[in-house]
């Protein structure tokens, strides 16, 4: 008996020792360091902390964003992913609690006469004055419980990992909200720019039609040839055809907004008047360390990293012995009327057992190594998110400043070219300039006005993009 006991102890010790041998891993710690400032300023005022209804003031744009936050299909799909993550937490939380169930069953059996059970039946033919039946039934009603004791915190770490994944999905939703607000805003300002370009083009066509009439009169007076008339006429036709290109771009942009808002094609309500006169408010970037708490993609990467670290611990705990306790309590009898005959029909068992993997642990090793690699991936992803956020803010700050100077110079260019149209037309009437000078001046002025509107749109986009880069909109 002692030998048997010592053998069991020896086997258990061997199992424990073998289960502690783990594959070697390459460990890496994440780098959270960022620069102290973007451009030497330590001002912590941060426009990214403003709510989007405070940052954007156009009522039509606000209405579009409000509708999108309720109707956008992709955002609603992501909300269902969050529900799935919540359910995963519930499932993993239940894993380290006891499982209790109720069992009821009936069976019948007959043993062969020359089996040990059959021979026993033959020697006990009479029970309670009655002969045993050939087929003996067995009725049982019991409550069963199973509990894995979480001695290595494997199940609890698994549940915590699910919690971090849930938090990561929340940050993913926030990041999508930030991007959705930015996409709608950029498309809205693009729509305003297209409206203004179309208006400028139509005004320019009227100017060119007037110039064409002048050239026709000059041709009748034999001051110019038919070539000049055809050149001006071709320029008018070219700009008239360009109207339809702009109208198509307006339709495409409207429908892009409609898609983001989650509705079928319709006219987007807007006020395009005064687009060129919109004043860009000052934007404050704060300090780079604020990105760690403001930007949802960085927070999402951080939560995923925490989950990956716990997954490694769970995979490591799979090598250790699992302690499982099984309990059973109920009644059992060969006739239903005896089930309630207590305590004669009462049955109860409780079994505790430990199991540890000893041989062929390749699947556990593979899972452990893969979990470590995923953790390393999560570290790189976290560092990349921080670096990407810093670079985006830095680029947009520079972009805002350069576009401001660009717009100022283009405004002066447009003013000069607009004035030159009148000058060239007057010189042409007095035969001091040829028709090509008038034509090229009008063309240059039109391109400069288009460029000015394009620059204003880029300024508005820069205002939107710096807000997105700072992590604004989700709160």
Outline the structure in words.
With 475 residues, this protein is an alpha+beta fold. It folds into two domains: 341 residues, Outer membrane efflux proteins (OEP) (Up-down Bundle), CATH 1.20.1600.10; 85 residues, Outer membrane efflux proteins (OEP) (Single Sheet). It is built from eleven helices and six strands. The strands form two sheets. A four-stranded antiparallel sheet has the order 1-4-5-6, with no helix packed on it. α6 runs antiparallel to α11. The protein is elongated, with a radius of gyration of 40 Å.
Identify the notable features of this structure and list them briefly.
475 residues; two-stranded antiparallel sheet; 11 helices; single chain; alpha+beta; Outer membrane efflux proteins (OEP); 63% helix
Topology:
Layout: H1 2-19, H2 52-55, H3 59-71, H4 73-95, E1 99-109, H5 116-123, E2 126-127, E3 130-131, E4 136-149, H6 154-220, H7 226-261, H8 291-294, H9 296-317, E5 322-333, E6 346-355, H10 362-429, H11 435-469
Antiparallel strand pairs: 1-4, 2-3, 4-5, 5-6
């Amino acid at each position: 008996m002692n030998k048997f006991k010592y053998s069991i102890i020896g086997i258990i010790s061997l199992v424990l020792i073998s289960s502690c041998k783990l594959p070697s891993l390459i460990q890496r710690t994440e780098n959270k360091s960022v620069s102290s400032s973007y451009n030497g300023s330590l001002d912590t005022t941060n426009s990214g902390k403003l709510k989007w209804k405070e940052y954007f003031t156009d009522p039509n744009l606000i209405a579009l964003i409000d509708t999108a936050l309720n109707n956008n299909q992709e955002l609603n799909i992501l909300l269902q992913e969050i529900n799935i993550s919540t359910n995963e937490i519930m499932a993993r939380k239940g894993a380290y609690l006891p499982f209790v169930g109720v069992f009821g069953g009936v069976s019948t059996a007959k043993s062969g006469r020359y089996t040990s059970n059959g021979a026993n039946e033959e020697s006990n033919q009479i029970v309670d004055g009655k002969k045993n039946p050939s087929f003996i039934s067995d009725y049982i009603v019991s409550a069963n419980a199973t509990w894995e004791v979480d001695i290595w915190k494997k199940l609890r770490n698994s549940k915590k990992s699910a919690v971090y994944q849930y938090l990561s999905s929340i940050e993913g939703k926030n990041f999508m909200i930030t991007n959705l607000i930015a996409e709608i805003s950029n498309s809205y300002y693009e729509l305003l720019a297209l409206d203004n370009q179309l208006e400028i083009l139509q005004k320019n066509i009227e100017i060119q039609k007037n110039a064409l009439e002048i050239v026709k009169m000059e041709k009748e007076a034999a001051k110019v040839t038919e070539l000049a008339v055809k050149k001006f006429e071709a320029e008018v036709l070219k700009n008239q055809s360009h109207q339809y290109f702009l109208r198509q771009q307006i339709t495409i942009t409207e429908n892009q907004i409609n898609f983001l808002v989650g509705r079928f094609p319709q006219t987007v309500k807007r006020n395009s008047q005064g687009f060129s006169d919109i004043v860009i408010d000052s934007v404050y970037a704060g300090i780079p360390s604020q990105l760690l708490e403001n930007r949802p993609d960085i927070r999402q990467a951080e939560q995923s990293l925490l989950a990956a670290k716990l997954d490694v611990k769970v995979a490591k705990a799979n090598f250790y012995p699992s302690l499982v306790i099984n309990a059973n309590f109920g009644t059992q009898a060969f006739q239903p009327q005896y089930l309630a005959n207590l305590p004669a029909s009462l049955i109860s068992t409780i079994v505790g057992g430990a199991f540890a993997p000893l041989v062929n642990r390749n699947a556990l090793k593979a899972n452990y190594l893969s979990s470590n690699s995923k953790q390393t991936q999560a570290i790189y992803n976290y560092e990349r998110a921080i670096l990407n956020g810093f670079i985006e803010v830095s680029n947009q700050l520079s972009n805002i400043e350069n576009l401001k100077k660009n717009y100022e110079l283009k405004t002066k260019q447009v003013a000069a070219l607009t004035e030159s149209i009148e000058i060239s037309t007057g010189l042409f009437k007095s035969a001091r300039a040829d028709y090509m000078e008038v034509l090229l001046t009008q063309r240059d002025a039109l391109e400069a006005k288009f460029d000015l509107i394009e620059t204003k749109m880029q300024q508005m986009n820069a205002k939107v993009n710096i807000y997105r880069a700072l992590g604004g909109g989700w709160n």
